[in-house]
Amino acid sequence: MLSPKENFLLAAVEHKKPERVPNEMSDVIMYGGAFESFENGPAGGGLDGFGVTWHATESAGGQPVPGGKPVLDDIEKWEDVVKFPNLDEYDWEGSAAMQAGIMGADRDQRIVEYGMWNGQFLRLTHLMGFENALCAMVEEPEACDALFTAITDYKIKLVERIAKHFKPDIITSYDDIATERGLFMSPGTYRSLIKPHHKRLNDAVKANGMIPFIHTCGKCEDIIPDYIEIGTAAWTSAQPMNDIEGILKKYGSQIAVIGGYDSNGRPGMEDATSEEIDLEVKRCMETYGPYGSYVFMGFRLASGSDFGAFMAALVPINAAAEKYKNIY
What we know:
There is one protein chain. About 45% of the residues lie in helices and about 15% in strands. Helix 6 crosses helix 8 and helix 7 (about 130-140) packs across helix 8 (about 140-165). By secondary structure, it is of the alpha/beta class. The longest helix has 25 residues, at about 140-165. The protein has a single domain (about 5-325), classed as TIM Barrel (Alpha-Beta Barrel). It has helices at about 5-10, 25, 35-40, 80, 90-105, 120-130, 130-140, 140-165, 185-205, 225-230, 245-250, 275-290, 305-325; strands spanning about 30, 45, 55, 65, 110-115, 170-175, 210-215, 235-240, 255-260, 295. The protein contains 13 helices and ten strands. The strands form two sheets. It has a seven-stranded parallel beta sheet with strand order 1-5-6-7-8-9-10. Pfam families: URO-D. It comes from Acetobacterium wieringae. This is Uroporphyrinogen decarboxylase (URO-D) domain-containing protein. InterPro entries: Methanogen_methyltrans, UROD/MetE-like_sf, Uroporphyrinogen_deCOase.
């Protein structure tokens, strides 16, 4: 029998049918993400390394969100205003040891994935606010491109440090460029203004011996071929407002899909019943699993800022995933 790590790689990287449907939430050791104070501010809220203010939420285990007065008002003045974190001041060895103690460190049995939050588009919105960022992309694309280049240069330096100190199998770059109705911008704008920077970051991940995934919430199905073209091995966290089954049919041999759970509907609510959760997991496994190149992932809301409460909310989802994973 394949280990969880071997089984996961078969589906997510080799794009083949595994022995059983992998589960992102149980088969993976997830580092990075909210642990990056230079990207998301300190625990409980505060300034990140860019000078953006973050606030801890009362849901999703206290994960932070940006707020307050925008750092950047005029995109053409970004070189005078935007500061980047000094990555050499960060305690990489201490952070790696701390995260291994919290999240686990069984590399032989489980995938090690590093979540690199706040991709190029998201960082622009954090600096300017969504409205101003979207206007800047239309009105001053050359200035946006220059800032995206600088953000990508910084991200590549981050990739190098992640490779050295965490040695993950996978780096997932988080860039939420879509709403539940569609992309924040036209596919053409994505291709001309953001895609080249996504590709350069993917290339750096591969050059440092790791596998690039991309996280994009919302309806982004129009640019799945672009994600394939830039060398992305898997798309996460896929939501069912996309035609996930159609994507697996057409592109499953080229890119894996991670997700599928209806986190926006009743199964994603805090008061979801055990029956609602069970039926949704079963739907995902039976609908998407047969195509291979699919990894289940599900989550739901949890009130409070306690990370333990957020993890506890996943227990019934993961139990159902264990129940239905053997579909082959």
